[in-house]
Design goal:
about 300 residues; alpha/beta; Rossmann fold; 2 domains; 7-stranded mixed beta sheet; 11 helices; about 15% strand
Length: about 300
């Protein structure tokens, strides 16, 4: 399968390759990165993401304060801190303790509580018992999967009914989140395959049966324009599982028709069979990228 790797070309020139002209520009970039990394909100964000945003901001703003404000605004949109996070030290300690009990019910309860700390996975909790069962009824159970812009979703593994031999790759730009997920993977008996990676800068290169991109495409499109289509085209998977909120967070406005149209436009021109699953609160598309191939092996 062909991969697209030079993702910066798709960022409408905002993050195209940057050539430093003299030490002063490099110093400006470094100073801006340092200022962001020293902030309480964004100090644990992937440095490569901050650097690319700093480069773009310094092209558009002459004053460092303006550039810093622009980077923080963009990070706010990308990171979405308003969605919430657990206190990772406390969550790590709780998982360690609960796995020591070897009680599946206690483990599942702890995972559910932590999933509740992030709005995206919190909204999925009422349907979690059915969510992956219905998806895998369409796709088959994957032996390997990619969870792109994963958030806390890897903690839903107990509901996936998959063996611990599953190759579960997860990608996020929030460093403590990835460290926490790898700790969870180790406790669960999974290989620690979560990594800090900005998928807008570097498309995932791992081969898998299935890729999850859950409720992230609207924000991805808002932040990166038309990059969503080349991202989906690049993924080395047989199945894409892409979901959208079925109703707006505030006001309960029905979004099904809007996102159904968006999804079909996004993959227009590809002969990719698509199966739609509508859950209370979440619209899921199971898209078969490769019909005639055997499942990829790791």
């Amino acid at each position: 399968m062909k991969s697209v790797t030079n993702t910066a070309d798709y960022w409408h020139g905002r993050l195209s390759p940057f050539i430093i002209e003299g030490m002063a520009q490099e110093d400006d970039v470094a100073a801006l990165v340092t200022a962001v990394k020293q902030s309480k909100k964004y100090h644990d964000t992937h440095e490569e993401t901050i650097r690319e945003l700093a480069v773009a901001a310094l092209r558009h703003y002459k004053k460092p304060k303006q550039a810093l404000k622009a980077v923080r605004a963009q990070l706010h949109s990308i990171m979405a801190p308003y969605l919430g996070d657990p206190v990772y030290d406390a969550a790590t300690a709780r998982l360690t303790a609960v796995f020591a009990t070897q009680d599946p019910l206690q483990i599942k309860r702890a995972c559910r509580d932590i999933l509740h700390d992030h709005l995206s996975t919190q909204e999925r909790l009422p349907i979690l018992d059915d969510f992956y069962r219905e998806i895998f009824r369409v796709t088959g159970k994957p032996g390997s999967l990619l969870d792109i812009a994963c958030g806390l979703n890897p903690l839903a593994f107990p509901w996936m009914d998959l063996p611990t031999t599953t190759h579960f790759h997860a990608y996020d730009i929030h460093e403590p989140r990835i460290a926490f997920i790898n700790h969870y993977f180790a406790l669960q008996g999974l290989a620690p395959l979560a990594k800090v990676q900005d998928v807008a800068l570097h498309f995932p290169q791992e081969t898998a049966d299935l890729a999850l991109f859950l409720k992230e495409m609207p924000r991805f499109a808002r932040n990166y324009g038309e990059l969503g289509r080349p991202l989906l085209e690049s993924l080395n998977v047989r199945w894409l599982v892409i979901s959208f909120p079925a109703v707006s967070t505030h006001g309960g406005r029905n979004l099904v028709s809007r996102y159904r149209d968006f999804m079909h436009q996004l993959i227009a021109g590809h002969n990719w069979p698509i199966t739609e699953l509508l859950f209370p609160g979440e619209l899921v598309f199971c898209i078969q990228k490769h019909q005639d191939e055997q499942p990829p092996t790791i």
